Each structure stands twice: as C-alpha cells, then as structure tokens.
Amino acid sequence: MTNQNQASSQLVYMRSAGWLYLLIIVFGITSEMLVRSPLIVFSDPVVTAGNIVRSEGLFRFGFLADSIMLLCDVALAVIFYVLLKPVNKTLSLLAAAFRLTQAVILSVNLLLYYAALLLLNNEYHFSVFSNEQINALSLLLLEMHSHGYDLGLIFFSVANFILGYLIIKSKFIPGVLGYGLLAVALAYLAGSYTRFLLPAYSDSIQPIYLVPFITELALCVWLLTKGIGKSKGSE
Q1: 149 three-state secondary structure
Q2: CA nearest 31: which of 144, 156, 146?
Q3: CB neighbours of 112 closer than 8 A, spacing ≥ 6?
Q4: What are 48-64's pLDDT values in tens digits?
Q5: DSSP characters for 77-145?
Q6: Are 139 and 199 in contact (CB under 8 A)?
C-alpha cells in the first residue's frame, strides 16, 4: 500500500509538472513572440515608443504573461526537487536553487520592462527630458530587460544541466530527455555568453534555440501523457 501511495503521489507531481511546463511554454512564447517582437524595434526608439503607446494594453499583457510564467517556474522548481531528490537530494536541491535564482533575476528584470512604460506615459512628469530622450531611455530600459533575460538563462542552463543528469540517473523518466536537457544547457550557455561577450555573432546562433524549444516541449508532453515507471533512484 505504501508503494502504491508513493507511486500515486509521484504521478500527481509529474502531471503537475507537465501542466506547469505547458503554462511556462505558452506564456513565455506569447510574451516574446506576440508582444515584444511586434512592438519593440531595437534599432528605432521612435517607432518602438509609438508602438507601445498605441498598444499599451498589449504591452501590459506582456508583463502579465511573464509574471504568470515566473510563478509557474517557481512551483516547477519545487516539484522537480521533490520528484528527483530520491535520485540525489543534494543535486536536486542545487538544481532548484539555480532555477529559483533565474526566477528572481527575471522577476526583478520585469521592473525594467514596466519602467519603459512609465517613461513613455510621463506618469512622473519627466519634464527635464525631451521626447527624444524619453524615447531613447525607454528603449535602453527594454534593451536592458532583453539582456536581463540572457543573464537569467545562464543560471537556468546550470539548472538544466543538473536536472538532465538526474533524469538520466532516475530510471523513471526516459534518459533521452535527460540528454536533451544537457543539450539545452549548452544551447542557453552559448546563446547568453555570445550575446554578452561576442554580440556581433548573437544573431547568427539564434537557430540553437530550437534545441530548448523541442526538448522542453517533449519533456512537457511526456510528463502529461506517459505516466510513471518504477522508480529505482538511489541516494
């Protein structure tokens, strides 16, 4: 009976992780592809300012989508810790810590995103700035927000590397998904460090982000549909 209860609890955690992963993917893609990409033109502060002012509701929705994504990510960090601590408690805790660090960075980073709107709405009467300066400052804030994402992904990549190792050792999640997460970690590290250290090559390596999308979607689908096997994790 005890083993059955443990298996049932494990299944609940897996299903919960799957739904949280799905929400993270949906809201993450929505905020990036349907909000920021259409509104923000990093080469043109005037066009960007006009887009945001005309579509303020959509811009605010981007804040909502990102905040929901981060709330789900915090919950997912805890659930993965519970699921994988029978494999190695210390490494599972370390993976959760790096994932939560990413969530903290991106949460604070959202203030930069929202600050751009405050500037453009002139809510605090920035009379010392001209319209051109306000537009330029708001775009700088959005640029910093974009770089903040890459900073968070450095910590997220470490979390994925550890998580991938734990999945490979777990015996109740397919090892191929663990190896996929190792590739995800390398892709995020390469993308983030290239942007900070070799920005001229940043655009050329964008295709590597297909690796995280495919792998994380596959893990999400497995968690939602495949059930569990018998856990043979060891301390």
Answers
A1: helix
A2: 146
A3: 141, 142, 144, 145, 148
A4: 999 999 999 999 999 99
A5: HHHHHHHHTTT-HHHHHHHHHHHHHHHHHHHHHHHHHHHHHHHHHTTT--TTS-HHHHHHHHHHHHHHH
A6: no
Please state, in angstroms and rounded to a whole number, the distance separating the CA atoms of residues 202 and 199: 5
Q: b/e for 141-154, b at 16 or more Cβ within 10 A?
A: bbeebbbbbbbbbb
Global pTM value: 0.90
Beta-carbon neighbour count of residue 134 at 10 Å?
18
139 Cα distance to chain centroid: 22
Name the band, by pLDDT with cuts 50, 70 and 90, for residue 5: low
**Single-letter amino acid, residue 132:** E
What is the sign of the dihedral through the CA atoms of 132, 35, 76 and 159? negative
